[in-house]
């Protein structure tokens, strides 16, 4: 496979040798996995169009570094080695190009099987975790802003002590009131953070890739029990750092402690905000269950203002050769429709397994788009998208007699069709711009979605009711 490919499988070298090379890292900087990504819970700004083009270049992409190689450097794998598993487990693009250098027998292990054998076989889990520790973790810790000031020796020592934790959907990481002994860094996935309010659990915040949980329990004196219950939404991968190991870092690096305090204060503020405004809890729950939390640009329509004139749909079609790229239906929440339009996900699982690379990030923000010329209409992306955001479009033509693979010849030519965020248009999303009532929005994250919903809640509150 090539660098940048999304795969839902790993490889085991049963026989032969495989060469791995990092070609492009120098030009495409790796985003730190454990960066600070907290957001203002009271944010009210809505994004209705993508940022201007000249700013887009600064947006970095999630990228794994499953091998600690410098650009151009090679590593050779042999019998008994695994590769590709870090990208597959975390939903990251592969960070190296893998090429066989001899006659090889490779065993492909698909993601569900990989998860299962990792869970059931202690020996395999250890082998994969050791590989992650030696190939990747050190580099990730080094590029983590939180740990930027730590010496290489300290990070090396830390990398040896941390544990890797995998959670299944719905699995609990921590129970409110139980003894806390670790801080967790989220490598991938989403965690729900709930607290008991008047005896019932209330979802107060969530943690996603790059964030930490358990920092308040480490820092606040006299608090040694979990202040919240933490549960995985889907599959999650975490790094567990024991309080003892983290304290060793904090003793030598007060600046790390300062940053961790900022995370803790942010979390306490977010939890407190949700407790004061239970509506936020419902919004976050909806966003987590419907995938809005994954989105970097989600089309949301205010149904109380929308007149169903369909100008948004026509605007989309007229800027895309008459083929609309979204459907004005979908899940609704408190009078808002989350339209069936691509969310431009943080982890775009639609990219996994495209045989031609037709669907890809297009180097404009997080935009995922399809190159019609490369699409062979296999439907893999449409099947993979959990949000029904891709439809197979019949072009009304047939594949020519020269088409490859040969089985396509004479068959009806289908192409996968989805929102491309109008990334080639200076005018931004046509759906938003075409709405004469100003009720179509593109929201970039849960906080923006919540602010939109909250603004309506305030509007519809009866006179005299408490704000
Ligand atoms: S097509 Fe689906 S999975 Fe892919 S980015 Fe869009 S919403 Fe996400
Ligand atoms: S339908 Fe087209 S874009 Fe989608 S996976 Fe197949 S070839 Fe790729
Ligand atoms: S952003 Fe552009 S392509 Fe996407 S739904 Fe709106 S008009 Fe269509």
Task: Output the strand order for the largest sheet.
Answer: 7-14-9-12
Small molecules (ligands, ions, cofactors) in the structure? iron/sulfur cluster
CATH architecture classification of the largest domain? 2-Layer Sandwich
CATH class of the largest domain reads Alpha Beta
Distance between the termini: 56 Å
Percent helix, as a range, is: 25-40%
In DSSP terms, counting alpha (H) and pi (I) runs of 4 or more, how many helices? 13
User: Radius of gyration from the CA trace?
Assistant: 24 Å
Strand content: 15-25%
Integer count of domains: 3
Class derived from helix and strand content: alpha+beta
Largest sheet geometry: 4 strands, antiparallel
Uncertain ranges = 25-66
CATH topology of the largest domain: Alpha-Beta Plaits
Report the count of strand segments.
22
Shape: flat
Overall mean pLDDT score?
Answer: 83
Question: How would you sum up this structure, described in words?
Answer:
It is a single chain. This protein has 467 residues and is of the alpha+beta class. It has three domains: 1-28 and 66-141, Jelly Rolls (Sandwich); 31-62 and 144-276, Sandwich (Jelly Rolls); 291-460, Alpha-Beta Plaits. Helices cover 29% and strands 24% of the residues. The protein is built from 13 helices and 22 strands. It has helices spanning 53-56, 85-90, 111-120, 122-142, 152-161, 215-219, 243-252, 254-276, 278-290, 311-318, 380-384, 430-434, 446-460; strands at residues 9-15, 18-21, 74-77, 82-83, 97-100, 105-110, 163-167, 172-174, 182-188, 190-197, 200-208, 212-213, 229-232, 236-242, 298-302, 327-333, 336-340, 359-361, 368-370, 391-398, 412-417, 440-443. It has a four-stranded antiparallel beta sheet. Strand 18 (359-361) and strand 19 (368-370) form a beta hairpin. Helix 3 (111-120) crosses helix 4. The chain is flat, with a radius of gyration of 24 Å. Residues 25-66 have low confidence and may be disordered. It binds iron/sulfur cluster (SF4) (3 copies). Residues 342-345, 348-350, 368, 385, 387, 389-390, 418 line the site of one iron/sulfur cluster.
